[in-house]
């Protein structure tokens, strides 16, 4: 077996650490971006992203919708919610703003009578939490 000179070995090791460092730096940047998205969504809606995620799971929204970040989310009855934050409308009818989204989440049958989304008895606070989560779904996830 051929022995690698010490200086060459050191260069190889340092190059490897550079790659690891770059990967680590990328991961930190991703976490910071996610944190900024969550802070923005929470400020916009008055809800809490983490509670919204739990509410989406508890309410089984993924039974009808595909929702990025929600495990086993493959619903096909309602539209995919990927990229929701960049959409212009909610339910194809309402301007995509926090108050309209909360209204839709709470009272979809009042907004569009006869549509496939049932009224789920969701309160204001829970609807704001769900809205906060949805506003973290950027177009990159589509």
Fold and architecture overview:
The chain is mainly α and 142 residues long. The chain has one domain (6-141): Cytochrome c-like domain (Cytochrome Bc1 Complex, Chain D, domain 2), CATH 1.10.760.10. It has 5 helices and 2 strands; from the N terminus they run H-H-E-E-H-H-H. It has a two-stranded antiparallel ribbon. The protein is globular and about 60 Å long. It starts with 5 loop residues before the first helix and ends in an 8-residue tail after the last helix.
Task: Provide a quick synopsis of the model.
The chain has 142 residues and is an all-alpha fold.
Key features?
Cytochrome Bc1 Complex, Chain D, domain 2, globular, mainly alpha
Question: On the 0-100 scale, what is the average pLDDT?
Answer: 84
Q: Whole-Å distance between the termini?
A: 50 Å
CATH class assignment: Mainly Alpha
Estimated structural class: mainly alpha
Kindly state the percentage of residues in helix.
40-55%
Order of strands across the main sheet: 1-2
Tally of DSSP β-strands: 2
């Amino acid at each position: 077996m051929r022995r690698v000179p010490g200086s060459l070995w050191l260069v190889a090791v340092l190059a490897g650490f550079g790659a690891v460092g770059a990967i680590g730096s990328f991961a930190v940047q991703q976490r910071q971006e996610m944190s900024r998205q969550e802070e923005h969504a929470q400020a916009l809606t008055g809800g809490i992203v983490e509670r919204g995620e739990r509410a989406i799971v508890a309410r089984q929204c993924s039974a009808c919708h595909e929702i990025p970040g929600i495990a086993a989310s493959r619903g096909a009855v309602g539209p995919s919610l990927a990229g929701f934050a960049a959409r212009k409308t909610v339910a194809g009818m309402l301007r995509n703003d926090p108050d309209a989204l909360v209204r839709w989440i709470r009272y979809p049958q009042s907004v569009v009578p006869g549509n496939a989304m049932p009224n789920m008895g969701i309160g204001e606070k829970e609807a704001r939490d769900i809205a906060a989560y949805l506003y973290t779904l950027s177009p990159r996830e589509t």
